[in-house]
Amino acid sequence: xxxxxFAWLPDWLGNTYIExxxxxxxxxxxxxxxxxxxxxxxxxxxxxIFVNPYVSNLPFLIAGLFLFALPYFRFDMFSNKKxxxxxxxxxxxxxxxxxxxxxxxxxxxxFVGVAIWFVLQNRPYSIxxxxxxxxxxxxxxxxxxxxxxxxxxEEFIRPYAxxxxxxxxxxxxxxxxxxxxxxxxxxx
Length: 188
What we know:
It is built from eight helices and no strands. It has helices at residues 11-31, 42-49, 58-69, 81-97, 107-120, 127-141, 150-157, 164-180. The protein is flat. The relative contact order is 0.14.
């Protein structure tokens, strides 16, 4: 029997979505442990820093979705190419940093968003932009490699899911830039 919200769907399709949702809930619980190679996300970072695997994703997702949705109300900016590319960068980063299923290789998606953001910055680059970008290269891209000192990689970055931190900071910056971008500002 299909539950009420899916009553308009054929039974098999409604049941498929219900089973998919149930499986996602189980997978999320499997990922939300403190020693997992997954859950390299904003929520996972919080859970690991505060040593509490029972922290719910919901407050993070609500705050993230609110910030993510804000720029979408700037209808007048939809034709602006810089705004469009910032939106693309935001989507690429958001999908990774707010997913409890994120693991190290997943960050190639987020880093494309970081690269788009960096290329869109006004030149000469500000010190702040350079520091954020270098921070992202070091913690997000190089952290799983031998170029990162083993002590930092195994004692800080991996145990606390700090790979997500630079992407979170850049994503917040992207949201800020999208909210403050003027209609007359275009790609330079």
